[in-house]
């Protein structure tokens, strides 16, 4: 079981606290989207949950405190794709995505047929097949972003943390990625936490939204409860109307001022 619980998480950087007392519970197979204006602490939250930042509070995966898990177990429990990844430029797309299988490899460290099948599936679905043998250094920004996500998805961890996964992707590739993530959660019960700057897309894919403002929880709940004009005006200082899509999810449309 891969329920994710975050209890009273406080985290920050050398001189400043960027996240204060944030709690969230995501059931196995659930999808939480973390939203909030620039600098509100979204990336800090994901980094702290991934164990990459000093923090206070608890992170539990399937009831197990993450800090007690060793490296390999942790990588099977949780995959993290950062907003600004550092990439080894010489690797090809396939070799890089294959790195996602590392925590599953046997003692000899050699990948099996199952590992290659997972990689092939991810590469295919993210439209990377034509680029599979190309070095990462020779990819466009959006192609590179898809390779990074491919590695995280190939990890097949219980929990998937994706920081701004659609940044730099055109609409079709963004939807293909989010559909694949959705498929993993439906078929494997993967628990998903994403930050997403697009509020309409957040509402379409996540079952709950967590709105951060100045590092604290400003709102938390189903998309239609969080994405109200009053909340968006208060926290984003934006002019919007909230429409309703045919399936009932909110559509956030900007309105020009002045
Ligand atoms: P978001 O992802 O919501 O845009 P972040 O979590 O990246 O915001 O940042 C939250 C706050 O922490 C911001 O005020 C940002 O300037 C600060 N911050 C982010 N990264 C660092 C860092 N490496 N060192 C110091 N402060 C940082
Ligand atoms: Mg961020």
Automatic annotation (TrEMBL):
Domain of life: Bacteria
Transmembrane segments: none
Residues annotated as domain ABC transporter: 4-239
A Pfam family annotated for this UniProt entry: ABC_tran
Keywords: ATP-binding, Nucleotide-binding, Translocase, Transport
SMART domains: AAA (SM00382)
GO molecular function, one term: ATP binding
Record bears the keyword Signal: no
Keyword Cytoplasm: no
Protein name as catalogued: ABC transporter ATP-binding protein
Species in which this protein is naturally found: Saccharopolyspora gregorii
């Amino acid at each position: 079981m891969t329920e994710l619980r975050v209890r009273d998480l406080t985290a920050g950087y050398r001189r400043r606290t960027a996240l204060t007392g944030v709690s969230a519970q995501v059931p196995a197979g659930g999808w939480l989207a973390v939203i909030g204006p620039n600098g509100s602490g979204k990336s800090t939250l994901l980094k702290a949950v991934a164990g990459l930042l000093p923090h206070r509070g608890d992170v539990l995966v399937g009831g197990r405190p993450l800090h007690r898990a060793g490296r390999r177990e942790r990588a099977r429990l949780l995959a993290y794709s950062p907003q600004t990844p550092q990439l080894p430029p010489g690797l090809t797309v396939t070799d890089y995505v294959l790195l996602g299988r590392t925590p599953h490899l046997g003692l000899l460290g050699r990948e099996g047929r199952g590992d290659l099948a997972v990689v092939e599936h991810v590469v295919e679905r993210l439209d990377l097949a034509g680029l599979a043998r190309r070095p990462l250094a020779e990819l466009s920004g959006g192609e590179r972003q898809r390779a990074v996500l491919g590695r995280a998805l190939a990890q097949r961890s219980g929990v998937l943390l994706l920081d701004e996964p659609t940044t730099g992707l055109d609409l079709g590739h963004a939807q293909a990625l989010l559909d694949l993530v959705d498929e993993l959660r439906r078929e494997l019960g993967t628990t998903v936490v994403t930050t997403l700057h697009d509020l309409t897309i957040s509402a379409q894919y996540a079952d709950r939204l967590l709105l951060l403002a100045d590092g604290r929880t400003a709102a938390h709940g189903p998309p239609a409860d969080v994405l109200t004009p009053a909340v968006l005006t208060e926290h984003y200082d934006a002019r919007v109307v909230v429409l309703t899509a045919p399936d009932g999810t909110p559509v956030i449309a900007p309105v020009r001022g002045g």
